[in-house]
Amino acid sequence: MNKIRVLIIGLIIFINNSFAQHQSLQSLIDTALQVSPELKMYQAKINVSENRIQQNTNLPDPMLTLGVMSLPLPSFSFNKDMMTAKVVGISQEFPFPGMLGAKENVNNKDVEIVKQEYIDKRNEIIKDITQSYFELIYIRKETQLTEESLKLMQQILDVVRSMYSVAEASQQNIFRVDLEITKMSEMIAALKSEENEQLSVINSLLLRDLSAKLETDSLPEIKSAQINVDDLISKAELNRPFLKGIRIAEEKEKLSQSAAEYDYYPMFKLSAQYAFRSEVEGMKPDNMLSVMLDVSLPFNYGGKISAMVEETKSMQEMYREQYSASIQMLRREFGMRAAKLKSLEERIKLVEQGSFIQAKENFKSALASYQVGEIDFMNVMEAQNNLYTIEKNLYRLKTDYLKQIAELEFLTGTKIN
User: Fold this and answer.
1) Tens digits of per-residue pLDDT, 39-51?
2) Which of 100, 98, 107 is nearest to 58 (CA)?
3) pLDDT value at position 6?
4) What pLDDT, on the 0 to 100 scale, is given for residue 57?
5) What DSSP character marks residue 262?
6) Which residues, in sequence order, are bridge partners of residue 270?
7) How far apart are CA 318 and CA 280, in angstroms?
8) What's the structural domain count of the chain?
9) What is the pLDDT confidence band of residue 154, given thresholds at 50, 70 and 90?
10) Cα–Cα distance between 120 and 7 in angstroms, integer?
């Protein structure tokens, strides 16, 4: 029975790995976000931060006192001295009013910071899946173009061999075509390896078998994006979780400063004791009640309190400078990527409206001329290679454009188009 069960499970795994699953980019993103161990880790970190609020923002537990007062020795008698008493007491420490609320505000900021880390990691996963998916589409398109070119070369080889048999082509021509076929076969093998690598990246993000197959759509339509560095900076300041996290960290240190300044104020301890006294020589003394209030004296020995306050001020300055440095880095990054996007957009337009159309017409003309014997097969090979190279480069440009948009959406924390 166990052998049958193992066989069935193995068959299911084989079937799942043998048939490509068609999933849109959005469905892949949804799956990756759902199964991501990193996101689950950040969710657990959020829970940890929330639980710490209750630990640090409540009164300490009260203290119960049980004891004996003024017990005579060595008799240990409770009815020889009027001062002897059994004592029960309770005490409670209280911080200066407002201190617990200040600490709670600080701990709430920790939760907000981790939530921004969660969102930033989520956006990073979306970017990684998107870029890998587009790269996989490109690799498969290049493989398709190379295979089509290879088939054409094989047809040309058959023609050249026929021409060689009637002394209309040289053996060197056959070697030249054979060399092109070999180069293309090697290129296809290399592309298959790259495809498997890209599949492994995607499947690892989906927590699936690394060899699981996946069908892809074609590249989405390129939409012209109006990229302005200042607009991107504004979007990032408004939406980027990383920058929000720095701002929240600065706010946390301001609240930490307020919480630290409460240490300049005293702490309080209120205690009450009740003393039970026994009858002594026929006299019943009264029981005694004691109530005391202890007040700490915050002398700030060695400047320990002021040092804590100054530390929070330094931390605020650090986060302000970190924010400025991050904006500076983003401005440089946005400038580079905006320039690259503009260049890619212009090149795509030039290729689509110019060289790609010309290469297709040139190849058709060369093929027609070759079939009637007006030109040598070398002209056909050159025209075909030119068309193949231009079409492959056009797909490369479109893929790079889409990957740049995905990167910008991660850096700004929002959609660009």
Assistant:
1) 999 999 999 999 9
2) 100
3) 38
4) 84
5) G
6) 92, 293
7) 71
8) 1
9) confident
10) 43
Does residue 139 contact residue 194 with C-beta atoms inside 8 Å?
A: yes
3-state class (DSSP) for residue 16: helix
By DSSP bridging, strand 85-94 and strand 268-276 are antiparallel
Other Cβ atoms less than 10 A from the Cβ of 306: the count is: 14
Mean pLDDT of 64-79: 87
Residue 250: give the domain boundaries: 25-412
Q: b/e per residue, 336-373, with b = 16+ CB within 10 A?
A: ebbeebeebbebbeebeeebbeebeebbeebbeebeee
Cα–Cα distance measured from residue 217 to residue 392, given in angstroms and rounded to the nearest whole number: 17
Cα dihedral sign for 32, 34, 40, 42? positive
**CATH number of the domain bearing residue 53:** 1.20.1600.10
- Amino acid residing at 194: E
State mean pLDDT over 345-371: 87
Structure confidence at residue 247 (pLDDT): 97
- The predicted pLDDT at position 73 comes to 86
Residue whose C-alpha is closest to residue 181's, from 158, 150, 155, 152: 150
Residue 19 in domain: no
**Is pLDDT of 237 > 60?**
yes
Q: What local confidence, expressed as pLDDT, does residue 164 receive?
A: 64
With respect to residue 12, please indicate whether it lies within any of the assigned structural domains. no
Neighbours of 142 (CB within 10 A): 22
38 domain-assigned = yes
Lowest average pLDDT, out of 71-85, 149-163, 190-204, 309-323, goes to 149-163
- The answer to whether residues 387 and 153 touch, using CB atoms and an 8 Å cutoff, is no
Does the structure show a pLDDT above 90 at 243? yes
**Is 330 inside a domain boundary?**
yes
* CA 395/CA 135 separation, integer angstroms: 10
Q: Which two tokens stand for residue 322?
A: 């970190």
